[in-house]
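Internal tracking record. Fields below are filled automatically when a chain is submitted to the structure queue. Please do not edit lines marked as system-generated. If the sequence contains nonstandard residues, flag them in the REMARKS field before resubmitting.
Queue: standard
Priority: normal
Entity type: single polypeptide chain
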Amino acid sequence: WRDANILEHKKLAEYKVFEDRGEFDLKKVPEGYQLIRVHTVFDVKHDGRHRARVVADGHLTDVPLESVYSGVVLLRSLRTCIFLAELNDMVPYATDISSAYFKAYTTKKKVCV
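SYSTEM-GENERATED OUTPUT FOLLOWS
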């Protein structure tokens, strides 16, 4: 778990997810910021790898009404693509964009953790 935690924190630093503004008093959150908590979620992947993810308690912020969609691929769509690839002698490829959510900038709210 230690290695998984180190890797997660390296990625957080690499993508400059957090900006250190020094110490502050929890009772005096800076003007224009909302205080939220973060915690680490540990998981074992299907291939036995250990993963650690630092996640924010997003339920503590207001839900942005214009951005509540989370896209997922339907199994039927995936099967259709594979079927069409097979019919056209194409080779399907798949990938995983590791840590893609690190690049999702917040534009409406400034948060303090």
